[in-house]
Design a protein that fits this description.
8 helices, single chain, alpha+beta, 2 domains, globular
């Protein structure tokens, strides 16, 4: 009779132990890495690329010089990526933005509401650098240039995301941000 941990009907069934036993019987020596904490989705490259693509799509503006090109300031893009990956921050950002348009004495009250973590977040910068290295986007001075009419991996990813109705929370956050776009001065970077 098989040990309890190898009986699938047992509450103590251990699929990993059973798999290792089967591999040993086949003459293989399995190695199991110790469990580790899973990283948050913000650190997943495909998620980062998807958020960057959605941010470029929602926040970039047509370039006056080249009709087929869309541009966005790199810092504003980074802010968009940061907010899209953390949609729960949209509410705080909108409250902060509303306070910015009213009396100056509210600055001290509303200042903590501005999500400032984007300034030190290296993930969006790494994703953009990766997309530039792939040739999916370019950078000219302080602006990132996106080519939405060119057939590319990035535009195909965007089509898939929209067709499959993926990343709803991120797209909703970016829609709110597009309507209430900050300025570089308001973000304290100019």
């Amino acid at each position: 009779m098989a040990p309890e941990h190898m009986n699938p009907s047992s509450t103590n069934f251990d699929a990993i132990a059973e798999l290792m036993a089967l591999l040993r019987e086949a003459g293989l020596a399995p190695r199991v890495q110790k469990p580790r904490t899973a990283l948050p989705p913000q650190f997943d490259l495909l998620y980062g690329i998807s958020v960057a693509a959605l941010s470029l799509d929602a926040l970039s503006k047509p370039d006056r010089a080249q009709e087929e090109v869309r541009i966005i300031n790199a810092t504003l893009l980074k802010f968009g990526q940061f907010i899209a990956a953390r949609p729960q921050l949209v509410k705080e950002y909108l409250v902060w933005r509303e306070h910015q348009s009213t009396a100056p004495q509210l600055d001290l009250q509303s200042w903590p509401l501005l999500p400032r973590g984007f300034l030190t977040d290296a993930v969006p910068d790494g994703v953009i650098a990766y997309l530039i290295a792939l040739g999916e986007i370019t950078r000219k001075d302080k602006n990132v240039r996106f080519f939405p009419h060119r057939k590319s991996r990035l535009t195909e990813l965007l089509k898939t995301i929209h067709f499959a109705d993926m990343f709803r929370r991120e797209r909703s956050a970016l829609s709110a941000l597009a309507i209430n776009m900050p300025t570089l001065t308001s973000l304290g970077v100019q």
